[in-house]
Amino acid sequence: MEETKTSSQGGESDMDCSDNECFDEYYYNLNDDSDIEQIDPRKIDPEYFEFKCLFEEEVDRLLNETVETLSNILQISPSLAKVLLHTHQWNINEVTRKFHENPSHTLVSSRIEPATTPNALLLTRYTTCPVCVTPQPLDKFYSLTCAHMFCKDCWIMHFEVQINQGISTGIACMARDCVVLAPEDFVLKHLHRPNMREKYQQFSFQDYVKSHPELRFCPGPNCSMVVHSREVKAKRAICDQCKTVFCFRCGCDYHAPTDCQVIKKWLTKCADDSETANYISAHTKDCPKCHICIEKNGGCNHMQCYNCKHDFCWMCLGDWKSHGSEYYECSRYRENPNIAHESVHAQAREALKKYLHYYERWENHSKSLKLEEQTLDKLRTRINQKVMSGLGTWIDWQYLFTAANLLAKCRYTLQYTYPYAYYMDAGSRKELFEYQQAQLEAEIENLSWKIERAETTDRGDLENQMDIAEKRRTTLLKDFLDV
Amino acid sequence: MANIAAQRIKREFKEVIKSEEVAKCAIKVELLNDSYTELKGEIAGPPDTPYEGGNFVLEIKVPETYPFNPPKVRFITKIWHPNISSVTGAICLDILKDQWAAAMTLRTVLLSLQALLSAAEPDDPQDAVVARQYKENLEMFQLTARHWTNVYAGGPHVNSDCDEKIKRLVDMGIEDHQARAALSSYNWDLERATEQLFS
Ligand SMILES: [Zn+2]
Ligand SMILES: [Zn+2]
Ligand SMILES: [Zn+2]
Ligand SMILES: [Zn+2]
Ligand SMILES: [Zn+2]
Ligand SMILES: [Zn+2]
Predict the structure, then answer these.
(1) Could you tell me which residue ranges the UBA domain spans (chain B) (predicted)?
(2) I want to staple A301 with a disulfide (CB 3.0 to 4.6 A). Which of A87, A120, A314, B89 is the partner?
C-alpha cells in the first residue's frame, strides 16, 4: 500500500516535493504583504492561512478523486468507499490502515456489513414483505449485505420518507435492530423520481462536506461556496463570492485571539444573560466634568465634551490625558483578592460585576465598529464632493479608506480580546495579555480619533498611526493566537 | 390514509389480538375509528415495579407514512416515570424516534413501553423533576410512582399519608391533581408544596 500514498488526494500530511508544487499552484493566499512571504509567512503573519474557495463541482471532483483512490486501493465499489470515507472523516490513510489490519471489523463498524452473519433465507416463490405485508414474487425483493429482504416498493417508500426528513447518508436497513446503511448505489438504483434523486444527492453532498475536516461551507446567506484548506485550524477564511469572513474551523464569525470553544461559551453566556446586560446599552453619558449630557455618535472612545472641551474615556469616564499612559486600568478588570472569603451573595455580585466589565467592553467595540462604518460613509460623501470640485482625485484620498479598513480590522480583534481575557486564569500570562490589550486599545482609539478628523490630519501622521496599531495587533496575536 | 398503513394496522391488530401477551392480559389494542388512524393501547404495569397492578392507557396515532415513520404514542393515564411526562404523557423512547424501523410493529412498541416501565433511563429523561427524584431519592420515587398507580391506574397500594396531605391542600382550595403534582415534586414536603402553589 506504500506506493498508493502519493497518488491519493485525501487527507495525508506527508507529501513529497512534486505534490507540494501542485499545492502552491493550486492555492493562493490572501495575505497583504505578498512581497516578503517567501521567507516563512507564518512567522511574519500569525493569521496567515492558505485556502481556496471552491464551487460545488470542484468539491465534487475533489471528493470523487478521494473515493476513486480508495476504491482502487481496497478493490471495493466507489459507493462503499464513500461510506468508509464518510465514517472516517475522509482520512484515506486511516481507512486503508484499518482495513488492512482487520477488514471485516472495519466493514462492520462502518455499518457496511452486519455484525452477525445473516440466516439462510427461506426461498419460496412467493414471500410476504414484512413491511407492507403483501405476498409478492421473490424477484421483487432486495436486501443489503444483512440479507433482510423487503420489496422494492417498500425500499422506495422508505428512501423517500427519509429523504423528505433530510436524511441521506444515514439511511439504514428497515429491519429491527439492524444498523446496516444503504450505500449510494443501492439508493439510487431504486430511486427514480428525478426530484428525489436530486434531493438525495444534495443532502449527501452536505453530509460529505460536513464530515470532511478540510472542507467548510461558507456561512454567508444563500452562498453555496466551500472553503478548502489542508490546515484545519481556527483561521480567518474569506469567501471569494460573497466576501463573508469566518473561522475555518467552526464556521462562525472569526474570533481571534479567542478559540472556538471559548467564543461559543462566551456567546452562549451573553445570550443567557442578555437581560442583565441590557441596561448598559446606553447611548448617552454625562460629561464627568461639567455633567452635560453627551451622545456618542462616533466609534472613537476618546470623547471630547462639546461644552467644556474636557477629554475623557467613554468606557470608564476617566481623564483621557492620564489614560494614555494608564490604559491598562481601563481595559483590565481588577478582581477583589479576598473574594474567596466573602459570602456567597458577595461572590455572586462580584461574578456579575466581572462579567459586566468584559461584556460592556465587548459590546462597546462592536458598536464602535458599526459607528465607524457610518463615519466612513460620511467620509466617502465628503471626498466625493471634493473630487467633484477638483480637490484631488480618488486615488489621492485612497489612503483614508485603507486607514478605515485597518481600523475596522484592529477593532475587530480588540473586541474579541475581551472574551479571551474573561476566561483567562489570573497570573503573569494574563497580566501580559492585558498589557498588550491596553496598548492595542490605546493605539486604536488614537487611530479612530485621527480618522474622524481625517481631512485635517497629516497623511504621514495617519500612516504612522496605522503602522503602530497594526503592529500592536500582530504582536498580541503572535503571542496569544494559539490555533 | 395510505394503503400500506391501513394494511399494516389491520394485520398488526390481528397479531396483537392473537398474541400470547393478550392471553396473559399484559397488552391490548382497540380500534377507535374505521380508518385505522387512531387506536387505544393498554399495558399492564410489570410485576415487581411501582406500576404493578396498574393498567395504563395509551393514545396511538398512526401517521400517513406508517410504517416508514413510527406511530405517535403518549400515555393517557397519568404516570410518575422519568421517561414519561407527568404533565402531558409524552414519552422519551428511542424506538419512537430515530431508532424506529419499518419492520417494527405495534406489538413491539407496547412491549418496549412495558419494558421501559421496568427499567427507567433517568439519564435520558422526559420529565426532569421525576428523573431528579429517581436519581437522588429512589425510595421517594417508588413511593410516589406507586401512589400515582393507585390513584390513576387502579393499582392496589393505598398510601394514606399521601392522601392525607393532598386533602390538606384540597381543603385550601387547590385542585386534587395539582396538589398531588406539587407534593410529588417536593418529596411530599407539605410546607414547600404549599409555598410553591401559593407563590
Ligand atoms: Zn413491501
Ligand atoms: Zn438489515
Ligand atoms: Zn460565500
Ligand atoms: Zn472558530
Ligand atoms: Zn463637559
Ligand atoms: Zn477608560
Answers:
(1) 161-199
(2) A314
